[in-house]
Each structure stands twice: as C-alpha cells, then as structure tokens.
Amino acid sequence: MSKPDNYPSQPAHLWEHFYQFTQTPRPSKREDKICEYLINLAEQRGLSHKRDDIGNIVIYVPATSGFEERPTVTLQNHVDMVTVKTEDKQHDFDQDALNLKIEDGWLMADRTTLGADNGLGCAAALALMSDPDVEHPALELLFTMDEETGLGGAINLDPALIKGSKMLNLDTEDWGELFVGCAGGRDWIITKPTTVESIPSDYTLRRYFLRGLAGGHSGIQIHQQLGNANKLIGRWLFQTKKLGLRVCTMQAGVAHNVIPRSATIEIAFPTSNLEQLDALTEQLVKRWQAYLPAADKNLEFTYDDADSTTMLSSESHKTLRQILMALPNGAQSYNAEQPADLVDLSINLAVVKVDAQQMFVETSLRYFNRDEADALADTVVSIAESFDAEAEETIAYPGWQPDFSSSLLTHVSDTYERMFGYKPERKAIHAGLECGIMLDKLEGVEAISFGPTIRGAHSPRERLEIATVAPFWELLKEVVRTI
Length: 483
Description:
Helix content: 25-40%
Distance between the termini: 39 Å
Largest sheet: 9 strands, antiparallel
Strand content: 25-35%
Radius of gyration: 24 Å
Structural class: alpha+beta
C-alpha cells in the first residue's frame, strides 16, 4: 500500500523504517517476515548480527568516530504486534500490510491495531544505525520475539548476546515520562470438560454478537473501567437464568493482555420465553450504556440465526455462568507512592472459549508486590477448585522494582530538562515491560524506558501522536551521544 499523502517526513530515517514495519506482517509467534527485514538491513550494511535459540536478534553497530572508547549501549524493543481489528474490517495479519491514515495529528491504521507498540521503538533503534548524522558509541540493537503473548523472547533471551551495561527500552507510550519500573505478571488457564444435550424442538436458536466496546491494553488501561465482554456476558447469563437459556458455544477475547471488546455466543432457549428475553436483554444493554465510559459508547448486542445441534447441559451452563460471575476483573489496588493512575494489582478476564467438549478461561494478573499477587492467584485457583475445574499457571514473569536513584535515570532526566526546559515525570508502569525480565538475567545492567505518545494500544483505536516523535528522537540521539 502507498503512504498517506501527509505521511511524516522528518526524522526521515525513523519514519521510513516505521513505514516498512507497518507494511511487514509481524503477529506474535509469526515474526519471520520482519526478522528477514532486520537481517537484510544488517547485511546490507556489513554489520554483524546474532540470533539466539528463541529467535531474538542483536545487530551490532560499531561506534562512530571519536566515540570508540565510550561504553556500549543496548537499545531494546520487541518486533511483534497485537493483531486486533474491528468486526467489519477484512484483514489478514499474516499476509496484509496495514492501511495507514492520519487524523488530527495522529497516525493510525484503518480499523486495525497500528503496531506502534513497539514498532516505533524498533524504527528509532534502526534509525540510529542508518542515519549517518547520528553520533554514538557502540550499539547493540536487541529485537525480541513474542512479547505480546507472554514475553517469550525476554524470558528465553541468551544473555551472552548482550555486553552493554546501559539499556534503553523504547516501549512506553507517554512522551514526557521516564519509566524505571514495571509490573510483573502471572496468567492462569482454567479448563473443565462440558456435557451437552440435544436441543428440544420447542427451543429457538440464536447467535448473539456483543460488539462496539473499546477494548485496550489490560495493563495501562485497566483503571479506565472499560467494558469487559466476558463480564458483560456473564451478567447477561445470570440475569436471564430464569428463562431457560443454555449456551451452545462461546468465543470472547483474543489475548491475555487485551481487554476483551467483543463476544460471540450461541444459545438455545424455550421459544415461549422469546419476548421476555428480548425485553430483558434490551433493558440490560441500556443499563450497561448508562455506566460504561464514553469510549464504550458504540456497544451493541445483536443476534442472528444459529445452527447448533447441541447445547450445554444444565450443570455445565450453570458452571460457566458462575465462573464468569465469580472471577475478579479490573484494578484491585493502587500504588500509595505514585498518583492514583498507577495500579498495584489488577486482573483481566481475558479469553473464554466454550464448545461441546470444553470450557476454556484465561485470566491475567499484573502486580508490583508478589505477595499481594499470590493472594489474588489463590482466589483464582479457589474459584476453579470450587467448580472441580483445572487451573494451570501458564505465564509468570518478574516485575521491575523502581530505582529512582538510578544514575541512568538521572542522566536521561537531566538531558531532557536541558533540551526541553522542564523536568520529565519519573514513573513506574502497570505493564509488563521486558526490562524486568532482562535485568534478572543481565547482571549489573541499568535500564530506563521512554517513548512517544501512543493511545489505544492493543485495540483498533491504536494511534501515534506525530508531534511527539521528533522530540523523542532528539532526546534519544542526545542520550546516546552523551551517555
């Protein structure tokens, strides 16, 4: 696809690399095309590069003249992107380039995620390599795999690839803020076999579609009280339990780190209760619209005909309904040291899949305090045990404890103030940056994370504020030059 006519032109190298990232498919676990692009860039410039067993790539960039004696700096980003689109958008994330557009100073994609998380950071690192006007010490450009589905690249990183003692992570989304701490994470999958029955002849079949929720990042947006499709469906099933509904199949949510924005559920119910069901459903939708935030204003709950031949037994249906109601969701506690937008502990009821064989539920915890997380994890396991369901922890990664006395933080903060005339904010973030995992592996390394402004990450509303990219680039260049 061609660039939009008003696609940004400066800084030229950064914007060109980012455009190539938007045109190269890179879903999590299927990053082959973007890895080929990176390796080709390195080889075209005669630069050495290495890959570890999980697929992480490091491109080694020699120092520019006069900077040979400076310590090596590591630039770290992940290459994969969250792949979410609206229901009316035809797009194959394995094959198709993104269709870009610019509105009111924001770069976005047409009804899909943009992948500025973390493609913009990747592009900035590559621009340091390709822009001949940039002065820098030796650089290690580290590109990790499979961050968005469980930080697999960071968890399995071969530490022998990295020699630098200063790491710049470019995967945060608020210009003017420097991050030196992040949440850890733990994911649980709950499964239980289902039993089914034939659908009586006097039952009506329908396929319902819950759509129009905003969705978003289950870490940095969890405090915004966005609608969770799984919790809304649970509420609907609870409120309609006297009408004889039975679930046939259900699919909601796409990934552990995405607030679920839609659900598809097939049900069977006594035809005699049709009018009551319609009235109660309409009433519930109005209630949801009354308290959900403005971002969820497009919520709709529609249906068409279904063709299932079996429905869950009464016991399996009840179990599903009760699990959806019982599992916690949202921000659970807030940090006492930082303003109230920093969540200490949260949980996202992320994915639900139900068919004639099994119900599958994935829930994702984020935390700063491991003991506090243990208590919430025990709650999840106890809920599963109460329904004789299996609970398996599938993902666990450490947090990054904030170090506000870091010499690297001081350097970047002072550089920022000198360049822009005011102090940046110093923060931790309720998201799973890879720094926490890597600092566990790389002894003696200091890290900091910063980036331009991105909004709506992990949703089709993802957008990049163009005006923040140039100052971000200038800061990055100066930090690397003076570190």
